[in-house]
DNA sequence: CATCTATTTGGCGATATGGCAAAATAGATG
DNA sequence: CATCTATTTTGCCATATCGCCAAATAGATG
């Protein structure tokens, strides 16, 4: 595989993670998880969408490796695996202002 | 407008910028512009897609405020407006490894 | 094992995205 | 002003995404 292909593959991998972040609800979830582990039902209250919708957003984040879950009785507690991804929103907010 | 609405609006604005970055070709373009201002035709060679496709990607980046253009004769030179957005890909690469 | 609660999964319609090709535009140059 | 070059815009199709609802699942508890 030539250099160009390697680069393309690397950018595709990065893009898929970034894409997972590129949704208002998922940003809200990530920022909420920054503070503490949270169960799905609590996130649903925060987000205000149907719980199945919230669950699907969590699946997207999980597939991207951005969050992980831990079961405790009936509840699944989600947590942020990689807090550094949120530092970057500082830069974005600077861009928007 | 209540607090929740304000937050939602802020996340929507952030998400739209992040979404602009969430494509392999656009990441390639941003990383290329990090090194130097570049004209569209040079980017097309780099990317390998039709020039109209590259132009559309540049429009997406421009609308997000991530790049800006400067005309010089027949050429439009694009540049990165906010290099800090690329620091964050360090963190993403760490996540992928 | 029947049932309850929390969560995920499947299905569906509406809308957005990405790529190419063709047509339009903007500015430079004869 | 006719023409050339670089770039953008338009149109089209295929595919992906988002949100809801209904149905399925996983584990706890009587």
Task: Describe the protein in words.
In chain A, 64% of the residues lie in helices and 14% in strands. Chain A has one domain (3-96): Arc Repressor Mutant, subunit A, CATH 1.10.10. Chain A is of the alpha+beta class. The longest helix of chain A has 19 residues, at 3-21. Chains A and B meet through α1, α2 and α5 of A and α1, α2 and α5 of B. The first copy, chain A, binds a DNA duplex (30 and 30 nucleotides) through residues 23, 25, 39-41, 49-59, 71, 73-76.
CATH class of chain A: Mainly Alpha
Sheet-strand content of chain A, in percent, reads 5-15%
CATH topology of chain A: Arc Repressor Mutant, subunit A
Largest sheet of chain A: 3 strands, antiparallel
Biggest chain contact = A-B, 38 and 38 residues
Order of helices and strands of chain A: HHEHHEEH
Task: Estimate the global geometry of chain A from the Cα principal axes.
Answer: globular
Alpha carbon gap, first and last residue of chain A: 43 Å
Radius of gyration of chain A: 15 Å
The proportion of residues forming helix of chain A, as a percent range, comes to 55-70%
Task: List the domain count of chain A as a whole number.
Answer: 1
């Amino acid at each position: 595989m030539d250099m160009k292909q390697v680069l393309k593959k690397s950018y595709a991998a990065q893009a898929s993670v970034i894409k997972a972040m590129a949704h208002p609800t998922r940003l809200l979830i990530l920022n909420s998880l920054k503070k503490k582990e949270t169960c799905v039902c609590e996130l649903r209250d925060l987000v205000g969408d149907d719980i199945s919708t919230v669950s699907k957003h969590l699946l997207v984040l999980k597939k991207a490796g951005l969050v992980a879950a831990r079961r405790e009785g009936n509840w699944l507690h989600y947590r942020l695996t990689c807090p550094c991804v949120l530092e970057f929103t500082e830069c974005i907010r600077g861009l928007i202002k």
